[in-house]
């Protein structure tokens, strides 16, 4: 592994750097990536953020968003940038499978690979790792990387603060999840002091829905929510036809699973959605219930204890049946 002094030495001279993050990036993925970008360009590096896919429209306001390259839209350019890079920062993911086809390009690259992440069980592809499962967000680790690891706190500015606050806010459930400890609040306060307009960021992310998205949410809650009281579990299922009928765009389904979890007495919530290639699952839980264990063991995925995701190659009906069939094995944990 690359040592911190070695990394500091490398970053002392301009480098060609690529920053990438996971498939269908969320607020933490884009906030941490663009926050790191805003730091590195101040140091004179040649930096490009490449995302494997598109990402929600309500994140397009982030500083330097116009500089982002989407791999699926510019594959040749992306491949060349990866091939030419001296360093590749991998943010908010710990397995190259999480960046789809881009992962094989990164794996084949001779560039140094640097992981900044907070997910369980990292794959051994990196040359440097700033990693902790106790961090509430990758953006928290980027803050720690700049301020404490590299001792470059004087380079923190409003753009960096805005991006990192967005990442921390979204991955901590607006600072309400257990992972949002006192350290996270102190970092948030520092970012506000640096210029992050916390009220405005919250408004741009959470109060920025299209009419279609709101009507789709209403449809999910009125017509698609199923409660399994004997297991303290709630399920919302959505077909690909329903996605089409509401003209659902990237990001429009984000957060819907949390409404199911908010039902009184619910300990496990599942949002199961039929996509063109696979059936995707998003799980949320409360307390010590291991949502990540279910995703890892049964649905080719993983994540955090209370927030995890996976997929199934079966059809929607069979996937829902399989999910319900495993609940008896977890009944004791669900009802305690």
Structural notes for this entry:
The chain is of the alpha/beta class. The protein has two domains: 203 residues, Alpha-Beta Complex (inorganic pyrophosphatase (n-terminal core)), CATH 3.90.1640; 125 residues, Diaminopimelate Epimerase, Chain A, domain 1 (Roll). Helices cover 41% and strands 18% of the residues. The strands form two sheets. It has a six-stranded parallel β-sheet, sandwiched between helices. A six-stranded mixed β-sheet has the order 7-8-9-10-12-11. A hairpin with a 4-residue loop joins strand 9 and strand 10. The termini are far apart. The mean pLDDT is 96.
Descriptors for this entry?
14 helices; about 40% helix; six-stranded mixed β-sheet; about 325 residues; inorganic pyrophosphatase (n-terminal core); 2 domains; six-stranded parallel β-sheet; alpha/beta; Diaminopimelate Epimerase, Chain A, domain 1
